[in-house]
Design a protein that fits this description.
This protein is α+β, with helices and mostly antiparallel strands. It is 25% helix and 40% strand. It contains 7 helices and 15 strands. Strands 1, 6, 7, 8, 9, 10, 11, 12, 13, 14 and 15 form an 11-stranded antiparallel beta sheet that branches. The chain has a 4-stranded parallel beta sheet with strand order 3-2-4-5, sandwiched between helices.
Length: 270
């Protein structure tokens, strides 16, 4: 199942190149330092640019809170973009300004960027930041304050959150190798309707953001299901999941809700 569909076509918002706050993914320089250098050069050639390298979630919050009129631009992976959007959501500024993205990383780490239509090549992506158009996109919000761009994978019981800030910015390769533990006893409600109770065995559950809806792929007692929904609630004795590759849990319940047209991304004009 594709974790993201092509964005629904809507009239783009015209945007010019104002002052920029470049948030550099700490792993991007290790993954491809030359692409990072090229992207920064192109951006500096067309705008007033301030480059930051946040080393912790609190530092990321601080630089975004004090960005003033500067538009946030991420150089790095899909996961780096997710962390910036989550920080903006905490500040209630998710739709304050369009966000720019220059994808840097391997094909797995930048898969969502490609699906959204962001150019893969650093020069083209940086020029899109300077002269592109802002398109409105949807995402998932959860009741724990989380933001999901692409997908949620259920991975079974966890011993708690793993890794530090750098692991959260890391490439999604490890997440691609993860698989649900299977046979989870979960209570699943979709749009207020009970879909599975704890006496049933959830062998697989994956949630993806597709257009302006979430798509569920579910294997229940060996029977596969696929459906779309606007709201999903999962409850259990303690389960873990990965939101855009970031490990979360264990938690006992969580609700995800679709928020259409909730943020803006700079994409090629036309």
């Amino acid at each position: 199942m594709s974790s993201l569909s092509t964005p629904v076509s809507r009239p783009p918002d015209a945007e010019g190149a104002g002052p920029l706050l470049v948030v550099l993914d700490p792993s991007a320089r290790q993954a491809d330092g030359e692409s990072v250098r090229i992207a920064k050069d192109v951006l500096r050639g067309g705008a007033d640019v301030k480059v930051t390298l946040p080393e912790s979630p609190s530092e990321l919050d601080r630089v975004l809170a004090h960005r003033g009129r500067r538009r946030a631009v991420v150089i790095g992976s899909d996961q780096a973009l997710q962390r910036v959007l989550q920080a903006l959501h905490r500040h209630r500024e998710l739709d304050a300004d369009p966000v720019g993205l220059v994808p840097v990383g391997g094909p797995v780490a930048t898969a969502t960027a490609r699906l959204l239509g962001v150019p893969a090549e650093p020069v083209a992506a940086a020029r899109t930041v300077l002269a592109g158009s802002a398109r409105r996109l949807g995402l998932l919000l959860d009741d724990g304050g989380g933001v999901v761009l692409s997908e949620v994978r259920f991975t079974g019981p966890r011993q708690g959150r793993t890794g530090g800030w750098r692991s959260l910015w890391a490439k999604l390769a490890a997440a691609e190798q993860a698989s649900p533990s299977g046979s989870e006893e979960l209570r699943i409600e979709v749009d207020g309707r009970l879909l599975a109770d704890v006496h049933q065995r959830v062998r697989h559950l994956r949630v993806a953001m597709v257009g302006d809806a979430m798509e569920l792929a579910l294997d229940l007692d060996g029977s596969p299901h696929r459906l779309r929904a606007g709201r999903l609630t999962v409850a259990g004795r303690g389960f873990g999941y990965e939101a855009d590759g970031c490990p979360v849990g264990p938690v006992r319940n969580r609700t995800w809700t679709v928020r259409p047209d909730s943020w803006r991304l700079l994409l090629p004009a036309g």
